[in-house]
Amino acid sequence: MRKALTDKSLKALRPKAKRYEVHDLLCPGFSARVSVRGTISFSVKYWYGIKQRRLALGRYPVVSLAKAREKAMDALRQVDEGIDPGSRRRQPGLFVEAVVEDYIRQYARPNNRSWRETQRILNREFVSVHGQRDIRKIARADILEIMDAASERGARYQSNRILANMRKMFNWCIERGIVETNPTNGIRKQHKEVARDRVLDDGEIVRLLRACGQDSYPYKQFVPLLLATAQRRGELANMRWSELDLEKRTWTIPAERSKNGKPHVVPLSNYAMKLLDEVPQFVDCDLVFTTTRVSPISSFSKALRRLHVVSGTSGWHLHDLRRSATSGMAGLGVEPHVAEKVLNHISGVISGVAAVYNRHDYMNEKRNSLEKWGRYLEEL
Fold it and tell me: Over the stretch 99-112, which tens digit does the pLDDT of each residue have?
């Protein structure tokens, strides 16, 4: 398939049974590949000697169409000058962008269930600033500058996350012989983290639900569902229609997306089902919450700020809704071991030998608890 690629045409691409490519009419060899999951990645094909080669240019929309086309043209210019751009990229330590991409693909993705968050942090904080620099020239001052920028914009704990992720990535680089020293050595966390205990009271929940009612898809339904199901933000954001059994009223979170690596069946209360009934279902898109029809929703901070203003509440994050739901269920008489099962926690009330031999799935207890909690939310 050949067409002049635009942002509009990229957003219109849909996954098929097999991956396929759309070749750009404006740049020779440049194409967008669509995976069976709907992921769009850019690449450029070129001839070097007697071999045709492909150079990966990044995933959309992390890498914009304009940036990817610019990189493709630059690669083709290198070929005209007798340089193999793919060979340059594979040399250790040339570009921060290339090394981070390799780190995510070779280490973070296979070994870390939260690799997408690692990728987001490194791309936003590190690659966006130093993407075209030689990674061997990154110094301690560069790391501190990135951390200071996060602190200055109010993302205090994010500063600590940046340090942790960059430290791990540079240790990987040392193992691979890409760099000789880790520039994060000697840098300490800038902010002491305190375990959060924020729980929204009934009045705040009422104001929040009213604010959501005035909002639009996807957050109109997404935020109340966080409260109704007591699941993690990332798990709900990645919810698929194929994971829902609407007849049995269950949602199965697959093991690869569950924090503890075990599949988790979440019973859906009448309240949760009503919220899902309001969600539009797009053709050829399995995602429940999406604005692109290609990737799950994001921009959580922006949505949270809007809800703070409209609801007149403050000082809480989306993850606090999980804690608020758990506390609310406890107030309704839900037993702690049942709440643990609702949250999909392994450690806790049931642990040690009891955890090994207790294989009861507590499905009825979970359903009764979430139904009771759903009725309470409806009454509020």
Answer: 998 999 999 998 88
